[in-house]
Amino acid sequence: MNFQVHGLADVQTGLIGEHSQIWQYCVVLPGARIGRDVNICSHCLIENDVVIGDRATIKSGVQLWDGLRIGNDVFVGPNVSFSNDRFPRSKHYPAKFVETVIEDGASIGAGAVILPGVRIGKGSMVGAGAVVNRPVPPHAIVVGNPARIVGYVGAGDAARSLPPGPVESAESKVAGVRLLQLPRFSDLRGSLSVGEFGKHIPFQPRRVFVVFDVPSRETRGEHAHYKCEEVLICVHGSLEVVADDGFNRMTYLLDRPDLGVYLPASVWRTHYRYTGDAVMIALASHHYNADDYIRDYEEFLTHVGSPG
């Protein structure tokens, strides 16, 4: 036996990987599967239909119920509460419990509540005490009740402007993404901003769409394209755009009508933190084609050759 079980623990499964540790006053039922180098702290309960990946940490006071799938390198803080039945009744059991998935590298803070059927995305962070009642995107940071996105891991503070001087665009650490400074003219009659295709806009648009009336807690985008390029301009209010090339990610604040962000193909984009009055115009290089969208983040990482 290459794993450690404390003498005061009741562990009924043998499906435990090498070098894992299970501490005192834990109960683990026979069907549970636990990976390598896992640390299960004291006073935890693990039911039968539970899978825990390698190098996970489960802190004290956590109950892992049937249907829970925990990936590799996941951190579950003390007293996190999971649930697996949307309409629980005493002595009434569903034919199959709802599956909840915590993807690789995610962290869940102390005392958070995870409702049934939620997927916590790869590398994301759930703040202490948050109540998560909907999916959390990869690398998102969520807090509050109900949980809302307040940032993205590794995206840094929002890039708010271009460097000083007569520049029309600025590259970023995300491959091909850049802020675009459109010409602006102001006088007593008001202000005007203009963009010329092929000069300020680096492609000939085939499609334009407008996004507005977005509730502040909602996110949009959450996809990449195989071919299509886009320029996003917020003509009223503000929003933030997170661009991710599979190796780097960065946040861009769009808060004036003479500033846009260029997003090439093969870049994952997410829009969030819309103000209530935000109006965004998007210029796209291609007509709409559902087959041009990559909507699964793992598929995107494979497409760009990223290990994730």
How many alpha or pi helices? 1
> What proportion strand?
35-45%
For the terminal residues, how far apart are their CA atoms?
33 Å
What is the total tally of β strands?
34
User: Structural class of the helix and strand makeup?
Assistant: mainly beta
Average pLDDT level: 92
Strand order of the largest sheet: 1-3-6-9-12-15-18-20-21
Low-confidence stretches: 163-167
Share of helix, binned: under 10%
Largest sheet: 9 strands, mixed
Radius of gyration: 23 Å
Estimate the global geometry from the Cα principal axes.
Answer: elongated
Give structural attributes.
mainly beta; 308 residues; 34 strands; 6-stranded antiparallel sheet; 9-stranded mixed sheet
What's the arrangement of secondary structure elements?
Elements lengths: L3 E2 L4 E2 L9 E2 L4 E2 L4 E2 L4 E2 L4 E2 L3 E3 L4 E2 L4 E2 L3 E3 L4 E2 L4 E2 L17 E3 L4 E2 L4 E2 L4 E2 L4 E2 L4 E2 L7 E4 L4 E5 L16 E3 L6 E4 L2 E4 L2 E4 L13 E6 L7 E6 L4 E7 L2 E6 L4 E6 L4 E5 L4 E5 L6 E6 L8 E2 L2 H8 L4
Parallel strand pairs: 1-3, 2-4, 3-6, 4-7, 5-8, 6-9, 7-10, 8-11, 9-12, 11-14, 12-15, 13-16, 14-17, 15-18, 16-19, 18-20
Antiparallel strand pairs: 20-21, 22-23, 23-31, 24-25, 26-33, 27-32, 27-34, 28-31, 28-33, 29-30, 29-32
